[in-house]
From TrEMBL:
Presence of keyword Transmembrane: no
Name by which UniProt lists this protein: RNA polymerase II subunit A C-terminal domain phosphatase SSU72
GO cellular component: nucleus
Similarity remark: Belongs to the SSU72 phosphatase family.
Cellular compartments annotated: Nucleus
Biological-process GO terms, alphabetical: mRNA 3'-end processing
EC number: 3.1.3.16
Domain of life according to the entry: Eukaryota
InterPro entries with a match to the protein in the record: RNA_pol_II_suA (IPR006811)
Function comment: Protein phosphatase that catalyzes the dephosphorylation of the C-terminal domain of RNA polymerase II. Plays a role in RNA processing and termination.
Length: 193
């Protein structure tokens, strides 16, 4: 593979991890992150989410929720999601705190607010390498079914990007072909490390 990829959503749980897992299975050099202040998972009601710090191991969250209400968290898909996550990496990582992970060639965000936060973070960093990075937003609803669809679309787009000589020269054509084929709009921006 030519490029290093980062998958980014709010909590590094569902959308970014579904894509991270699928791309990893297909041999891509991929990492994943969240941009939120905390990791939030659904709780017994909208007003009672389960909140964790970034860096809390997925296994610890899994055990915590299994202890609290195993039926609820199995039924709403949170326990299977956490089980998948812990097979991919140890814990959710925050995008803004992981600047030293190296530079990525292509970063995927799965909602516009996250896309904006990634762009803002890249613009606020010292751009010492002057290496370009492509940031793409593929809007994906934060539920298990849409995350699976979003991951397949992301894989498809990454496979197309791998075919080009240089994404800088081909991005407009690749995006136009993707949008026509999948009837999904993409936002993208170029930033620098």
């Amino acid at each position: 593979m030519k490029f290093r990829y980062a998958m980014v959503c709010s909590s590094n749980q569902n959308r970014s991890m579904e894509s991270h897992s699928l791309l990893k299975k297909h041999g891509f050099d991929v990492s994943s992150y969240g941009t939120g202040a905390h990791v939030k998972l659904p709780g017994p009601s909208l007003r009672e989410p389960n909140v964790y710090e970034f860096g809390t191991p997925y296994k610890q969250m899994f055990d915590d929720l299994r202890r609290k209400d195993p039926e609820l968290y199995k039924r709403n898909g949170i326990l299977p999601m956490l089980k998948r996550n812990l097979s991919v990496k140890l814990a959710p990582q925050r995008w803004q705190d992981n600047a030293l992970d190296g530079s990525f060639d292509i970063v995927f965000a799965f909602e516009e607010k996250v896309f904006d936060m990634v762009i803002e973070d890249l613009h606020n960093r010292e751009q010492v390498l002057m290496k370009s990075v492509l940031v793409i937003n593929l809007e994906v609803k934060d539920n298990h079914e849409e995350a699976a669809i979003g991951a397949r679309l992301t894989l498809d787009l990454c496979q197309e990007l791998e075919k080009v000589e240089s994404w800088e020269e081909s991005i407009d054509d690749v995006v136009a072909a993707f949008e026509k084929q999948h009837r999904r709009k993409l936002l993208y921006s170029i930033s620098f490390y």
